[in-house]
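Note to self: keep these together.
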Amino acid sequence: MAKEVGRKVIASNRKARHDYAILDTFEAGVVLQGTEVKSLREGRASLVDAFATVDDGEVWLRNVHIPEYVQGTWTNHAPRRTRKLLLHRKEILRLIGKSKESGLSLVPLSMYFKDGKVKVELALARGKKSYDKRQDMAKRDADREIARAAGRAAKGRY
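Structure:
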């Protein structure tokens, strides 16, 4: 079998970028069981309520839903079990220092295959207030309207 090359996205947490201000991102490996990998190869995962915690010098991914493998037997995994994340010691120490600040969370942004291995893009994020979200939406709408006007002007249709 040929070795996989590149990046294939399994699941992404699109709402995270809306609800959080992203301060820093990390790439982490995930400790998985065999049936979890098979289920992920089918593209089945959900990061909706997922978050990460730092406990006793280790980083854990919680509430990620990986459904049971359809052809699995009694060896199937629990869909929402806690999974260990693999990071370098320096990154873990940095996360421990930053997570002590109030208001910071570890949120998974996406889960993907990179060269055949499952990785998670983890973000150190601060929750947005509702007025921040409204400002971001207004700015995005204004930018979109500017781009439309520039496109119309380029085509000569003021």
